[in-house]
């Protein structure tokens, strides 16, 4: 299990996907039934976990696959 | 376009308005109760302190009325508060200490409840920090009454011995199992809070 600080390596590409589709976060929130606050948390990479139901709803609304929604940065090494 | 019913994923606020009102009332009542307990307890201890003597709890044998048809009866002992002539200062001190311990225990329980309500109102209902107020409640409900009983029993024993251990009188040796039971309940609540805190932490940041 990754340490809490390693979660910052996961990047949510919600911003990019919204831009590509010309959609606002508010419109997406209305479409998927997730609160704007929660979507903002996800967009700003502050979420620690995501429900499958949220993921499915987002993928449906953005017509994308889960893999397009997230990327994981390569391991950072010290020194 | 989503043809399914939208999934509502927003978490409702942990504390509803009615919860907050109840917690606020509980907090106020607990603080007021603690203040009243401390003031009345101090006043109760002041009189024996000024007089230099306090009523000592002793058990007294009571004779039951004789009626026809009763073949035998077991002796009945009642608890009474007795003022003893030439009471030793240590007995007075022990009685006052028992009173103060009980007053402090009640006040500590009430303060623990008030602090717990305050912490819950400030945010995370099941924060680890809740263990401190719950610890206060535990000390108040279990340790306070047990220590109070022990001090009172000690005073009673000394007073009875100073009286020359007269027959028909006995010392009080009270031990309240209720205090232990309440203590166990508080320990169970503490474990519940710890588990709930873990669950709450897991749910944090979940979208």
UniProtKB/TrEMBL annotation, chain A:
PROSITE patterns: HTH_CROC1 (PS50943). One of its GO terms (molecular function) is DNA binding. Residues 14-69 form the HTH cro/C1-type domain. InterPro entries: Cro/C1-type_HTH, Lambda_DNA-bd_dom_sf. This is HTH cro/C1-type domain-containing protein. It comes from Agrococcus baldri.
